[in-house]
Amino acid sequence: MPVLVYKKWQIPPAAMLLALGAILRLIWILLVEAEPVSDALWYHEAARDLAKTGSYQKNDAPTAFFPIGYPAFLAAFYFLFGSEPMVGQFANLLLSILILFFSYQLAQKWFSERIALGSLFLLAIYPNYIAYCSLLLNELLFTAMLLGGFWAYEKLHERWKAWSSGLFWLIACHVKPWLILLPAALRFFHSRKYSWGNVGKIYVIILLFTSLWAWRNAQVMGDAAPFSTNGGINLLIGNNPYASGTYTFEGEVAAMLDSTLSETERNKEANALALSYLSRHPGKSLKRIPQKLYYLFHHGNEGFYWLKMGHTNMPAGLWRAASLSAQLLYFVILGLCAMGIIWHFLQKNPPAYSLRSALIFCGLSLLVYSIFFGYSRYHFPMIPFVCMFALTFLKAFISLFKNFQ
């Protein structure tokens, strides 16, 4: 690995870029205020109550509406350091550092040192990722645990890698439950690396805790929901006569559900309505997929809009400049990524093996959100892989240009 020599110190570039990312995020947290709103407020209040009472509740009643993963993560910090939003923001800073570290390690393993350093640099300065440090949203935890699971499987000893991946992905499943599909997808589409034995170990870890959580939900809520009680509502949001392809749960959509029902009963009612709509209108559901994918990718600066919702103290001019720069960088990287994936598959002997794990996760994400609904927050975990793909194309294009000259 190349190093920067300063007197008697040898500083690896990766360490410098990791420090750059941490410093930028620390400065951001200290200077930029953001009040929790919407989902962030829900997570904050649930974590605060969990830290105080030991019970996952909302309005003094047990809940499982959102998966417990991120509220439990915040609650651990609130219990130790107090339940101010800034405590959660510093917890997000730790998650951001993990994301940078795991992204570098995976790019180094799957691609090359140069691609790894380039990806680390992009993620260190990526405006939207920096903005998320101020937001008490679950994307940072999910992305860190997702990458951690891949890192453990790629870098740890054969004896421990599957068990360790299972621990990371257990937490990720209790942030976004659909991740439970990932080990099976890896087994079927990347079978040379993911054996039945290792995938079985991953599922043992995931299902062991999940069964305990389902038992808790059965005891206190009367429904053995393994993860959460909002899956049916999310499915209905994307599959109803008024669906727009993105999050819309008000007016006619909300009126479809009986407001007098309990949390678990409403979820079951929503699930039944969504499945009924899908079975009766499969053509309309298929036609809506492009809309859902559009809303999944159309913004790369949604973190700044969440800041604005939270009455940030950023001056309006600075907010517009930062938001615009985030969107422009996102479109450049996304465009390069698309060309990079196409370029790889146009090669006579594409290095698909090194790309396969990332492609499987991204493909699974597209499938899930094509069924549910698109929302800009949801592409957040794909960005490290997008950066890697973008840089592989850029590297190939530069090499081709030099050869042409």
Give a description of the structure:
The structure is a single chain. It is built from 19 helices and four strands. With 405 residues, it is mostly helical. The chain has one domain. The strands form two sheets. The chain has a two-stranded antiparallel ribbon. It has a two-stranded antiparallel ribbon with strand order 3-4. A hairpin with a 2-residue loop joins β1 and β2. α2 packs across α3, α5 crosses α19 and α7 runs antiparallel to α8. The longest helix is centred in the C-terminal third of the chain and has 31 residues.
Our estimate of the beta-strand percent is under 5%
- Poorly predicted regions are none
Our count of helices gives 19
User: How many angstroms does the end-to-end distance come to?
Assistant: 29 Å
Order of helices and strands: EEHHEEHHHHHHHHHHHHHHHHH
Give the C-alpha Rg: 22 Å
Shape: globular
| Class computed from helices, strands and strand pairing | mainly alpha
Mean pLDDT: 91
The percent of residues in helical segments reads over 70%
Sequence of strands across the biggest β-sheet: 1-2
Largest sheet: 2 strands, antiparallel
* Overall tally of domains: 1
Number of strands: 4
List keywords for this structure.
globular; 4 strands; mainly alpha; 405 residues; single chain; 70% helix
List the topology elements.
Layout: E1 4-6, E2 9-11, H1 13-31, H2 39-53, E3 57-58, E4 61-62, H3 69-81, H4 85-110, H5 113-125, H6 127-131, H7 139-155, H8 158-173, H9 182-189, H10 196-221, H11 231-238, H12 252-255, H13 263-280, H14 282-287, H15 289-297, H16 302-309, H17 316-346, H18 352-371, H19 383-404
Antiparallel strand pairs: 1-2, 3-4
Helix pairs in contact: 1-4, 1-5, 2-3, 4-5, 4-7, 5-19, 7-8, 8-10, 9-10, 9-18, 11-13, 15-18, 17-19
